[in-house]
Structures are given as C-alpha cells and as structure tokens.
Amino acid sequence: MKILMDMGPQVNKTKITIRRKSIIIGLRVFIALSVLTITTLLIFTATRETGKALLKVNPIYLLLILGLLSLYIILEATRIRLIAYAITGNWIPITYALQVIFCGAFLSAVTPFQAGGAPIQIYILWKAGLKWGETFLLLILRGIFYLLALALFFPVILPYFQRSYTGRSMQILSKYSIFAYLLILGAFLLILFYPKPLKKLLYSLTYRRGKRTDATRRLFGFVREVRRMRRGFFDFVKKRKLLSIGILIFTIIVYIPNYSIALLILHSLSIKAPYIDTIFRQIFLIFSAFFFPTPGAEGIIEGGFTVLFYNSVPKYLIGVFAILWRFFTYQLIVIIGGFLSLKLLRMKKILSR
After folding, report:
1. CA-CA distance, 351 to 220, in Å (whole number)?
2. Measured in whole angstroms, how far is the alpha carbon of residue 55 from the centre of its chain?
3. Average pLDDT over residues 51-62
4. Contact between 326 and 333 (Cβ < 8 Å)
C-alpha cells in the first residue's frame, strides 16, 4: 500500500510517496529493538539498588526535564521558522514547524538509516506555503546548520576522547565518527561543487540495457530540484551572510537544553558529572550514530551511550540512565510524532490505495 501526497499543480502534479507497508515494518522493528534494548540493559545492569535509587528521585526533576525538552522543541520550531523566513521572506505558522519536528522524528525512527522523515516534512512545508524547491532548501539548510554546529566542536572533542578514554569500544566509535564526519562532508561538497559526476553516476544506475527507465524519469525531476536547491543555497549564503552566522549561533543555542537533559537525569539519580564533559560525550555519540541501518539507530545509540558513561555512572544505574535519556530526548518525541503522523496521513489531501 502506498500513501500518496498530492503536491498540487505548482510542482507539475508531483507526488511524494510513503509506503505504508514500509512504515509498519519499520515501526515493528523499532518497537522490537526498543524492547530488546531496554530488557538487555536492565538484565545486565539492574539490581535491588536500582529500585531503591529510583524511589529516591524527586518528582520535581521530571518537571524540569520536561521543561528542558519543551524549551528545545520551541527553540527548534523557531529555528525552522527563521530559516523559512530567510528563504521566503515570510514566517510560517509555528504549528507547521512543530509538525516538521514531530512527524519527521517519527518517520525517521521507523525507517532504516533514519531516511524516512523527509517526504512528510516536504509535504508539511508545502502546506505551509513553501514551493517544492524551497522545502528542499529549508530541510537541507536545517541539516547543514546542525552539522556545522556539531563540526565546530568535533575537532576538539575527538582528541579529548582519545586522550581521556581507552579501550576497543572507544576506538571503534572514534574510527566510525571520523568516517561519518568525512563522508558527510565529502557528500556535501560533491553535491555543491561537483554535481555532474554524481549525476552521471546516478543516471547510469537507472539505465537498463542502455535505455531509460521509469527510475530515470523520476531521477530527472529529482536532479532538477537538486539543481534549484544548489542555486538557492549559494544565493542564500551570498545574500544572507550575517543571517547565516546568526542561524548557526542560534542552532548551537537550540540544542543546549536537549543536551542538558542527560545532566539533569544524573542529578536526579544523585550523580555529579561535569557539564561540558556530558555534552561532549553526547555530541561524540551523535556523530558515531550517523548512517547506522537500524530504524532510528535504535540499540546502537543506547549501547554507545552506555559505553561512553560506563566509567562515570555506577553499574546498577547505567542501564536506567541510558533508558531514561533515550526516552526523554528521542522516544517521547517519536511517540507524539506517531500520533500526529497518523492524523496527518488521514487528511483528504493524502490518498490511500
């Protein structure tokens, strides 16, 4: 079954397709991996001391954690609106920006390599009044500013971890982080400055016995929009230099509340930890998790998080700490996004066949 999003006449009746079967399969895998991960962590780390520690947690910490999460979501929605304003000169309603966050998180969580969020985000932004090429540009810029914000810290973080932490697990994470960092940077530079070789390669993959296929024709439309996106990106950077710097700085500010949740969870469990060190570990983990094939990188994130904090948190609390951190920083957003996505996919503009 396919769910087709009608993008209207302004994009030549182009339709963005979301396969319901793929979503259902991904959702089942995501839930199964989540349950398996939680069960495994509790089996290998939980003791009677774990229950005693949880009973001592002050409920006020729950409100503070939810407050930080809400602040992050509001700031991220504002960041999306700011990028939209920089592109179009108009502010989109905050409700659409919130849908981009929640629905994108849900569909990314239930698809391999976290690649499924873009179609529904494009549709939401189109409904908000953006042209199709503008929706691509907004999503690209949103990701670029986020990666640039992480990249500013990464040259400092990697040597810091190599000096401070040893062991095979850390070496594997470090090597994969470098690989992900270089791959993302290389792909970005290739698309921006050397698109023709990439275009030829993609076209050659769609040809069958030297003839064009339906995939070739679909790729043609995609390449055309990428070309528009490139032009829009360079125009944006040239004409909006100060605004670009401002958005980059704001992006760093946006993620401070989200990365502070881990420290608040530690305090609720009566564990003291350096603030900067806690943030650095999470940034390092984010780079390590890029392109993992499991839906939402589920299981990999929790495992990496446990490795990074294993020497700083008592064994009987490390599993609970990883579970709570993952829930408040990601899974709760995915759950809300699931309800919103189901509601959105039932709108009359979306046809089920």
Report:
1. 24
2. 33
3. 93
4. no
Q: Which residues pair with 352 in a beta bridge?
A: 3
CA-CA distance, 320 to 42, in Å (whole number)? 7
Contacts of 290 (CB under 8 A, 6+ apart): 180, 183, 184
Amino acid at 302: E
The set of long-range contacts for 189-193, using a CB threshold of 8 Å and a minimum separation of 24, is 191/226, 191/230, 192/230, 192/233, 192/234
User: Sheet holding 350-352: strands in order across?
Assistant: 15-19, 2-6, 350-352
For the chain, the farthest-separated pair of C-alpha atoms sits apart, in whole angstroms, at 69
* Cα atoms in the Cβ-side hemisphere of radius 13 Å centred on 139: 23
Residue boundaries of the structural domains of the chain:
2-352
- Do residues 271 and 50 lie in contact, with contact meaning Cβ atoms separated by under 8 Å? no
CA–CA separation, 206 and 213 (whole Å): 7
Please give the pLDDT value at position 22: 66
269 within 8 A of 57, measured Cβ to Cβ:
yes
**Would you state the structure tokens that stand for residue 39, as one six-digit string?**
């069960």
Place of tokens 């890029």: 290
Give the angle 304-301-48 at the CA atoms, nearest 5°. 75
Q: Which residues pair with 3 in a beta bridge?
A: 18, 352
Rounded (10°) CA dihedral 326, 327, 333, 335:
130
Q: Ranked by mean pLDDT, which of 82-91, 107-116, 175-184 comes out on top?
A: 82-91
Q: What is the CA radius of gyration of the chain?
A: 21
Please, are residues 109 and 334 in contact by the beta-carbon 8 Å criterion? yes
State how far the Cα of 319 lies from the Cα of 124, in Å rounded to an integer: 37
Identify whether the C-beta of residue 171 lies closer than 8 Å to the C-beta of residue 179: no
**Cα(69)–Cα(259) distance, integer angstroms:** 10
What is this structure's pTM? 0.81
